[in-house]
Amino acid sequence: MEGEEKKRRLSKDSMRKATRIYKYIKPYWLSFTIGIVMITLSGVFTLLVTRLWGQLGGVGVQDAGAGADVRGFMNLNIDFTSLSSIGVAIAILLVVQAAISFTRVILFARVTENMMLALRKDTYEKVIRMPMQYFNEKRVGDINSRISADITSIQDVFTTTLAELLRQLIIIVGGILALLYFSPTLTFIMLGTLPVMIIVAIIFGRYVRKLSKLTQDKVSESNVIVQETLTGIVNVKSFANEFLEMTRYIRSVTDIRAYALKGALWRGVFASFIILFIFGAISLIIFKGADLMTEGDLAKEHFFTFLLMTGLVAGSIGGIASQFGVLQKGIGAIENVMDILDLTPEDIDMSPAAESSMRLQGDIAFKDVNFQYASREEIHVIKDLNFMIKAGQQVALVGPSGAGKSTIASLIQHFYVPVSGEITFDDKDARSYELTALRRQMAYVPQEVLLFGGSIRENIAYGKPTATDDEIRKAAQQANAMEFIARFPDGLDTLVGERGIQLSGGQRQRIAIARAVLKDPTILILDEATSSLDSESERLVQEALDKLMIGRTSIVIAHRLSTIRNADLILVLEDGALKESGTHSELIAMDGLYTKLVNLQQSNR
Ligand code: ATP
User: Fold this and answer.
1) Mean pLDDT calculated for residue range 25-44
2) Positive or negative torsion for Cα 179, 182, 188, 192
């Protein structure tokens, strides 16, 4: 069917995994069971109504009195010879069935929506608590599709598919039993022909659809040629390649014709197949039924019922195939979601903004730290790194691209755990702190600030969700952001657009700084922007950063060496190892890698 959709094969293992969804149904098992009973009733009612329709037909064509002897299975103890009493019975059945179906739909929707709520919550919570390594290995789109598409597939299964499968199964089994009761001979003829033909028709239909999809693909290909040629018309003309392009197009459109004709051929065969074999099978059944009736072996109302019920059973056989496809997809989706629920997340405290009483001094030390990313174990990213940062110091990380500066920033934030060695805060191993409490003591201002799509106010408050309006304004002021915010007609309520695209780079950075101000961290990690801001904007950002750094341990990933001359400590890295460390003047005196980097930047100006 849908070519690109990857469907997992149903296996014992996948079925076992899928049954774990039971945990989510369990709280609603009573409603679920009542729903199942209602579907069963609804299926039985459909059969009964069909039976009564047949009775109507039978009574309509025969003398009163005939057919009164029909008792037993599918024969209700009512006056079966009177059209009006049959009509009343049908009306009652339909009303009851309508009420049952309504209740069933509502019941199932309730059960499913509650299940989905719990499942969505658990999945998202698991994903959001995963360590950074998980996000390195997965694509955002994949995770996103698991949370949305897979859960929608599961929802489909529980709202409609299971119910439909059960109802159709009841109709098929109940229907065939009833048919056998009316006329075993006719039933065997029916079963030997119609279901076989229906199944062949379904497979055939899929093939025909696949062919028409191929034709569509070819049409898109030819559209691409036209698009490419016309947008690149200057190239076509200057190379005088009109002939070449025409040949390419003709080849493509000739392909379209070939595929379309092949499709038409099979569509034709399909139509003939339906007429000859499906309609043929129906004719055979009617013919044989009529024959049995004239022989007196089949009551008229049974004949009519037989025809109607055959239609019902045939429809259900056709329907069950597509429901089965949806079920298969749903089981795959359950497996995917269960895989997520099996992951081991970081030890994050999920209580709402639990104010932590823990307050760090701000001493940081790396002791013999070695690290490599799990996704690329062959590269030894950090090698035997040792350094000490005292509380309140301003430290710069310097080094060529790929030296490991960002990795050190990530290690400080405990996004990753060192492979060996120890990182300490206030002389205590990072692992002895509660992860959430530790991260609440830090703020990170990235190079490329990505804002969330709400208002400026919401974006600043991200640093402290409980902040008052006054605190937000003060933070914006301190970050030199208030002057541009005040110029927007909506002030703090200005919407920043998706990812903050409606703001300039410098403005976004100042919002990120305001966020950090609100968080009031002990440790500040700044990734200096590489993309150059205009000098006024740069001055405002730098000034805000300088204010923010006062009284905090700050680690600056420096790309422009001119900004870090006053740093208390400069760590010069190369290939994950510490090459030099000291103040600007000490390092210049050493005349080593740092001096080389400084000279290189100056000569590039
Ligand atoms: P730049 O100045 O270019 O940002 P950097 O000094 O910050 O560089 P890092 O980003 O820390 O360097 O990278 C150090 C090494 O680690 C590089 O070889 C890089 O390819 C590798 N690396 C970085 N991030 C990952 C990751 N998520 N997974 C695997 N390898 C990574």
Assistant:
1) 93
2) negative
